[in-house]
Amino acid sequence: MASMTCSFLATIDPNEKSSRGSESASVDFQPTDVAVKTLENVLFGNTNTIQSSSSNVEKPRHILFEDVELERQRIEEELNKTKYRLLNTTELLNESELNNVRLSEQVSLLKDEIRRIERNMDRAESISNLEYLKNIILKFFMLKSTHERLQIIPVLVTMLKLSPDEQAKLIHVAQQTTSIVDASSNSEPNTQQVTNNANSNSSAWTSYLNMW
Predict the structure, then answer these.
(1) In this structure, is residue 31 part of a structural domain?
(2) What is the domain range of residue 198?
(3) Residue 143: which of 183, 199, 186 has the closest Cα?
(4) Residues 61, 110: one domain?
């Protein structure tokens, strides 16, 4: 049996042995290469990623520092731009608030002016009956007591469309003045007192009429 094995090995061509050895070597190397490529494709889908990362690793350290510095500068520029936009927005907001305050004041003034014009229009319609208004005013002067004059004031307020402030001033004037009848009845005993009363009445009414 041993002699048969030796004779079989002797019949094998040496070239065939070398070719088989090279094929086995190539087969042993080839599957490893294929396996590596297949793993890369499965994990990354493309070998360019590994190549680019390896190229980054291969970059010199000073180049990497320059890239980091450029990125830092870019971020700082973006931050400065954001701060500038925020500052402008804040200024615009402050201006808008000031404009709102001014507009509110103007609206209030316009409303007061509209009310005044409406009172003037109503007053013009009421004054069309001048005879009745004349009698009311004369009665206001002729009344003796302050209480009676105060009762006439609502009629004057309605006819003349007086504002609350004007009504208050008219009440103040009515409380300070005396009637014409009282002044004329007291003219004989004390002329100086009548003159003083007339002057005070005139100044009181003048102070009220000046606001028209």
Answers:
(1) no
(2) 129-209
(3) 183
(4) yes
156 and 101: one domain?
Answer: no
Residue type for 122, please? D
The string of pLDDT tens digits covering residues 89-148 is 999 999 999 999 999 999 999 999 999 898 888 777 766 677 788 888 888 888 888 888
* Measured distance between the N- and C-terminal CA atoms of the chain, rounded to whole angstroms: 149
Query: SS3 for 85?
Result: helix
Residue 182 in any domain: the answer is yes
Distances in whole angstroms, Cα of residue 106 to Cα of each of 44, 103, 109, 110, 113: 70, 5, 5, 6, 10
Judgement on whether residues 120 and 138 belong to the same structural domain of the protein:
no
- The answer as to whether 100 is a domain residue is yes
Q: Are 152 and 136 in contact (CB under 8 A)?
A: yes
How far does Cα 109 stand from its chain's mean position? Answer: 23
Side chain identity, residue 203: S
